[in-house]
Amino acid sequence: MAKNSEHRDLFPGALEIMILQSLRLKPMHGYALVKHIKQVSDDLLQVEEGSLYPALQRMLKEGLLEAETGTSAKGRPTRIYRLTDAGIRHLEREVVSFERMFAGFTRVLAAAKA
Amino acid sequence: MSRLSQFFSHFFRKRRYDDISVSIQEHIDERIDELMDEGMSRGEAEHNARREFGNVTLMQERSREEWQWQRLESLLVDLKHVCRRLGRSPGFAITVVLTLAIGIGANTAVFSVVNSVLIRPLPYPEPQQLVALHLNAPGAPGLADFRDELRLSASMYLTFAAHNRAFQSVGVWQSSTATITGTAQPEQVNTALITDGVLQTLNVPATVGQWLTAADQDPRGARRVMLSYGYWQRRFGGDPSVVGRTISVDSQTREIAGVMPRGFKVVNYDFDLLVPLAFDPVHESLAGFAYHGIARLRPGVTISQADADVARLIMVWMGSWTNGPGIDPYFYLTWKITPALKPLKDQVVGSVGNVLWVVMATIGVVMLIACTNVANLLLVRADARQQELAVRAALGAGRWRIARELLVESVTLGLLGAAVGVGVAYVGLRLLTVIGPENLPRLSEISLDGRSFAFTVILSVLSGLLFGSIPVLRYAPSQQSVPLLGGAVRTSSVSHERQRGRNLLVVAQVAMALVLLISAVLMIRTFNAMRTVDPGFSGPESLQVMRISIPGTLVRDPQIVTRMQNDIQDKLAAIPGVASAGFAASVPTSGAEPNWNEITIEGKNYAGEEPPLRLFNYVSPGYFHTAGTRMVAGRDFAWTDIYGLRPVGILSESLARELWGSAQAAIGKRFREWPAMPWHEVVGVVQDVRENGVDQISPATVYWPSMMHDIYGPGSFDARRTVYFAMRSNRAGTQALINEMQQAVWSVNSNLAVDSIRTMQDIYGESMARTSFTLVMLAIAGTMAFALGILGIYGVISYAVSQRTREIGIRMALGAKKSELAWMFVRSALVLTGVGTAVGLGAAAGLMRLMQTLLFGISPLDPVTFIAVPVVLVAAAALASYLPARRTAAIDPVEALRAQ
């Protein structure tokens, strides 16, 4: 439990953006997503399974993703997640608002240092 | 469970779950592969992968929670828990459900009445277009004393029908009776006399055959009738080939044109036969305001536009007809006749709307009191669960989670109450339609319909949320405020706070109960005031009344009609046990069409002023004696007055005083109705009679001999053909007497029908029906409120005693007397009752003004009621609190201190 809580609240919406951004490259299954994020972030970010699957379900429900039954790289049956048009639009909006937030965040930190 | 929901719950949902499981399985498998690639054994890898992943089931569940039905499922789980918990305390559950069932049932029943009578549209197509042709005549003094509306005359109808621009159709009608012969016994039936336009306006097609038409209005034309559904069933067994057959109506052969459908009424009048009114325009005059007018508005025409059209037509009417040669037709300008058309429904509902809304509000208050009682019970229950709730809150159950559970419980109780309540309402309505006042309009239409059920469901859910929200506010606030160990170490401040909520509920209950009790007592006092009024007749229970009609088609000569009536009166008086008999054109509140006109006093100069209108009645010698109407001065009529057409008359006491200052002074004075009439001498003055019900003032009345000169002047005379016979007998109301009465009538003429056989007590009771109906409803509501309020006080004190056992023990140990301790509790109950009473008195004083129209002979702020009711309530509260308070005496201080 403690391990989970360390990572869970990176900041609100971060996990969602990472999933959407990753799936923008290509459709993936859950495990592939975890590995992809880990690699791309140079092991800085570790997605918890306990957060990933509920997030995927929620995004499916909101229509940001679709899922189909497919096979993994190892040839076993699994679910492949794919970005929808709505997902792309949502991602673009979120990225803009995140960038604005970060800019503000950075300035506040800079001001605190000065 | 339907197939569709099976599909959802088993197939659809399961697929989603399986998908997620597949994903998770693959995830774990890949991790195992990876770990094995790093050199772990299979067993180690599996163990590590699973440990890393965490609780699979929990995650599956959390993933599923993203889908809606999870909420529904947990609601069902809550519901299951609630049912199980209620099952464990059946006493509590039954008390609450029954309390609610009575409250909800009473509300549903009354709402159904309000809905059927006031809300539901009239059972005619497009009822919003229907209007009653109501006319006011403020310039006709006296008219308003006994009838606030002016009806239409035949000439008015003919003018309106021919020249209006506002109506699709217009017609007039009148209620009457007719004698049907040709059956085993002559039968008296209720008829509606209708013109062309009445059926077109109401626009309900005939079940069998066709409507009457304009051709039936010709006095020399087709003689036809229509049957009501009920009469068709009763007399012809519902035979569809009845059209074209003939029946004898008032000795006149008429052909049956058709049958109206079941439940069809002419406005609010339940008839047996529809008989066409055949006006002869050649003989009609301006006067004769005897008909109810109804019309259907053209689409888009408003009532005020129609009013303007009728105002124009009234002038056309005055210009088109006369009351005979030499009489100014514009005389009616002095009456200031103004149209005041209103929706037909207003005429049907009449003054009952007011009563029903009062009853509805009253019953609503009882529901509120029931809710406060249930809220109190729930508070006690939630107290008992306090520790459990605190533990759950500490373990992470959210505020909303606990609130939801409490609300699910209260709404479930509400719905259970509603389910039983519908049964209560059904029985209540069956009772109401049996005992309800006959003059309650649309009584037969009263039923539980979709709207009533919707009302019940909404009421039960709302009340569930209402009484459920009180424990929620107390037990599901922020988590910190619920003391985890509160059950063990109760501080006095916590229990005080808890007590305060309950005290507020009691104050509210007492206030509401007081308002209801005051209304009920005022109605009882109204009822008593009405009973002690001298109605102008005595011993109504021993006064037998019946109606006999001798139509002109049976006996033409008025002299013979009078002889026959005289014979019947003598034969009735000769029946063993009958003290006396007499007859009159109308008896009080019989519903006979009123007859009224102006009278002129000999020697008085009116200077162009119109004398006021007076009510006319026509009586036989001996009628006053039989009815018990006291002779104030002078003498009764004698048969020689009647047969000799002597110009005499009798006045009511108030009229005699008004005209000549005293009853004595009136004797010997002379008056008349119209210029060609000989002056009539006042030979007697009788006490005032409450003709329109005991709660209505007595109209100024002129009593004429039953046979006298008619409007065509000396030499021409007429007799009253429909009269009410009255007999004074201690056998009144018995079947034996009724049989002998019928034999007496038939020994005079076997074609005469006897009907409306009732005792004066029945008629009297009907005139008080509205008051007694209101009285019974308010008395029931008041009693329920009183009982619930007292129970509330008892419960609060009882609980306070049990909560403060320890405190009582300490006080006893310190030397407090037992009586002082009991008094402490009684005193707190009296304080609550006192506050509630003060609030209630204020509310009652305001509300009773609204009830003023229902009261009679009593002030809405009647001091006796406003003092007596609070005294009784406070006394009952003192007793209700004394019983539990007495238990303090049984407390052993040592035990009390050792406990807890």
Automatic annotation (TrEMBL), chain A:
Residue ranges of every copy of the Transcription regulator PadR N-terminal domain listed in the record: 19-92
NCBIfam families xref list: padR_acidobact (TIGR03433)
Pfam families: PadR
Protein's UniProt name: PadR family transcriptional regulator
Xref: InterPro entries: Metal_resp_DNA-bind_regulator (IPR052509), Tscrpt_reg_PadR_acidobac-type (IPR017799), Tscrpt_reg_PadR_N (IPR005149), WH-like_DNA-bd_sf (IPR036388), WH_DNA-bd_sf (IPR036390)
